[in-house]
């Protein structure tokens, strides 16, 4: 089956909320795209709309601190998010997908090659919103609970910074670099998704390498016998042999629209990301100042938002916090008595081993 084609805009003009959505102005949405499923089959579909950021009017007028000018915000947020929204509306018109959230659509279509275009727009809608939600015009301090988890995973806040920025700097192609929590061991790690890839474990669509710097695999010889030819011509199953053991049945389950809930049931839960698509920084920084963009991004992270994404995953739990702090105190006290390294030495040793 060929991929769905873009429908003309006139097919959308009769939608009941087409004009209403344009009059919503700066109404704030809790999630990247809010969609209400019709209660009756005769009711018109609802459209994806661009959410409003906190302080969006201020951003569009003055930019975002030292990170973005007003012109860059206009391009990287308003114009690009509007473009993605329009494309996704066109591609999902008249399909069951029109009743789902962008993140749901990205997960549902991530392994279906016939829906590649739908996946690209849906995933980018979520990724770009996730990125802008984490920005602040003024520095926001890291709360102690979050800092403790960062140091448990990386050894020191500076190690996280250097690792994340170095990874982003090394991305030659379009990509997002993510700080995620590994739900298996409750440790943070860095993850890169190229182009429109998603970090959510149920879909987890990403390239493991940069194909620009990797030698191509040798060509596969053509099939000769009848069975091999039949297998080569049969439709491929994108759910087989996937690295994260993705199960097609999981896409058929009811999906929530809350990223933290989806992350909790997947391999990774995203906490923070930096956008290294060229349109996200080229206007303000030019071709040779990507490193300056990344430094300014780090200084513009709203760590309160990062904590709000980590806390629902169970890290607000007082028992977990007390157990972690008690283990560190015991280790520090033990060092002072027995001559073993103190806590600061332990953290330095752990960071050097990474």
Automatic annotation (TrEMBL):
Spans traversing the lipid bilayer: 163-181
Keywords noted in UniProt: Membrane, Transmembrane, Transmembrane helix
Gene Ontology annotations for the cellular component aspect, listed alphabetically: cytoplasm
Domain of life per record: Eukaryota
GO molecular function, one term: metal ion binding
InterPro entries xrefs: Mn/Fe_SOD_C, Mn/Fe_SOD_N_sf, SOD_C_sf
Region annotation Disordered: where it falls in the sequence: 331-354
Physiological role: Component of the mitochondrial ribosome (mitoribosome), a dedicated translation machinery responsible for the synthesis of mitochondrial genome-encoded proteins, including at least some of the essential transmembrane subunits of the mitochondrial respiratory chain. The mitoribosomes are attached to the mitochondrial inner membrane and translation products are cotranslationally integrated into the membrane.
Protein name: Manganese/iron superoxide dismutase C-terminal domain-containing protein
